User: Fold this.
Amino acid sequence: MRIALPDQSGRSKTYELLARPLPTENFSRSFNRRVFSAAHVVADPFADTNPGSAAAVDWDATLAFRRHLHDLGLGIAEAMDTAQRGMGLDWKGALELVQRTKSELPDALVYSGAGTDHLNPKDVRTLDDVDRAYASQLEAIQGTGSDVILMASRALAATAKSSKDYVAAYGKALALCDRPVILHWLGDMFDPALAGYWGGGDFEAAMQTCLEIISANQSKVDGIKISLLDKEKEIQMRRLLPDGVKMYTGDDFNYPELIAGDEVGYSHALLGIFDPLAGAAAFAMSQLAAGDKDSFHRTLDPTVPLARTIFRSPTQYYKTGVVFLAWLNGFQDHFVMLNGHQAMRPLTYFSEVFRLADQCGVLRDPELAVHRFNQLLAVYGANGNA
Assistant:
């Protein structure tokens, strides 16, 4: 099976597919790590919307994908940045997404994002505004029956004057939580508005503030996800967490090593890349749970080049690659995203994502993937026939 993939000059090179999909059916769904996929949403391609309009979501396809994740044994990290939270999906849409997911899958492992994104950071004057915003979203998310991921706040980043302001704000928010939550440290490569989060000028100072918050509120914290794309920083912080507090890797560059762990400990997983890699991730986690670490690495290590390409700089547009693969793999009928984000990556990016997805066995139906990518190539004036 072949396809002609264009390069930056517009010249095409024939690519011979391996066409060896990983298994997605006959393996155990019992894992020895907590594993979440941060799931994307499927846009309604027929909605009369413009960039900046309220999100128009295809709820049937969006919920069908969540059933797929649950069937694989994965937890669902709902209404996070992978769902274009703050980049097409507003708070009203996020809450509806959580409500629908909990109604559709009442027994699934679902943690959902609660933050302050209904505020415009430019309009926030005091920390009291931030406190009220967190309280409002926490009440709403917990009211759905979902557990909580306490998201980083652009409004807090814009308002806080020191690390003490973060300690105070998180203390108040955590006091309102009914059950232990997952904190989320989202790096500025994912959201530039979060630069300087925790009030520290460098990683060490920021980490100490975060650890102070966790230690002061330990009964309220299940764990923390850090999304800094730096394995050494994650390992360093993982070793400093209080007993019983989990580290959830958010490192979409180094996840196999961090999940496998070392002689001191390991990370659980809450990853955007486990949306397009859901089947591979579940299969690998079953191997790890069976004590076969070598097979775990043989399954998951080859996916890293694909993940690094999907999440390449500017990293916040990684969702485009996630949804592209969802379309190629038949989880939706179109390649349209909220706010027109399907246009946020160049054609050569899609060619490389396609090639690497085939190389690591992530294309579930290679013939369908070739057919659909040929459709996209035609839109760009390219001919994928080889």
